[in-house]
Write a structure and sequence with these properties.
Layout lengths: L1 H7 L4 E5 L27 H4 L2 H6 L1 H12 L8 H11 L3 E6 L5 H4 L5 E3 L2 E8 L5 E2 L1 H5 L13 E5 L8 H13 L2 E5 L19 E5 L12 E3 L3 H6 L5
Parallel strand pairs: 1-2, 1-7, 2-3, 7-8, 8-9
Antiparallel strand pairs: 4-5, 4-6
Length: 236
């Protein structure tokens, strides 16, 4: 297996993952036939998940958010567990993810750079008090802090910028690794997708169910499920 051979000779691997990593845990992606962008709501998901919509229509945002974004019963899958195993073995430097579900951390990964934030972190916009995802799920209407302020998820909405510190660390990780595994992403969401250009290592691997614009630029392309592919890897 070519992927096994690449991993065997790698010393510093970075994993860059998107929605396709979590679909095997039952979390819907955005752009597939049955994804969120193809479901019918009063507003398109892109609009609901924007900063402007959150500020102007907070209750409608939370109605959608609780219904479609808080998948708290989802469990890590084979991909999450294999990556955590690779980190423990000392060959995986970090996981960079566009996902907000927290499943990499739940599987045991320690260095996880969450480019788009996490549903598990929520803060009062007035006093900064922390709230869990369960707090949000179990609330009704607009979740309010004990101080009376509105609680906002620590997720990057449309119109919002990525966290500078997280981006800087992700670029550093990508630029210093010898193998970059890109998985479960169409590489169409920027600025996250643009980070790939900082890779200067030996092996660029792409694992994705569908073809992407980067297929021709990679050393190895695997069109299959991420979890099923990584589960075959033997850590030596």
């Amino acid at each position: 297996m070519e992927l096994q051979q690449i991993i065997d000779k790698s010393h510093r691997i970075v994993f860059f993952g998107g929605a396709g990593v979590s679909t095997e845990s039952g979390i819907p992606d955005f752009r597939s036939v049955d994804g969120l962008y193809n479901q019918k709501y009063d507003y398109p998901p892109e609009q609901i998940l924007s900063h402007t919509f959150f500020m102007r229509h907070t209750k409608a945002f939370y109605d959608f958010y609780r219904d479609k974004m808080l998948c708290l019963t989802a469990k890590p899958n084979k991909a999450h567990y294999k990556l955590a195993e690779m980190e423990r073995a000392g060959i995986l430097s970090s996981v960079i993810t566009q996902n907000i579900d927290g499943l990499h951390t739940a599987a045991g990964s320690k260095k996880v750079l969450e480019l788009h934030g996490s549903v598990h972190r929520n803060y009062c916009m007035d006093c900064g008090k922390f709230y869990t995802a369960e707090d949000i799920l179990n609330s009704t209407g607009i979740p309010k802090c004990t101080c009376g302020g509105i609680i906002k998820p620590d997720v990057v909405l449309y119109e919002e910028g990525l966290d500078d510190k997280t981006v800087t660390e992700a670029v550093r990780e990508i630029s210093q690794c010898d193998t970059l595994i890109i998985a479960g992403t169409s590489l169409t969401v920027y600025p996250a997708a643009g980070m790939v250009r900082y890779f200067q290592g030996d092996n660029l691997v792409l694992i994705n169910r569908d073809k992407t614009s980067m297929d021709g630029s990679c050393d190895l392309v695997i069109h299959d499920k991420v979890g099923e592919t990584l589960d075959k890897i033997v850590i030596k």
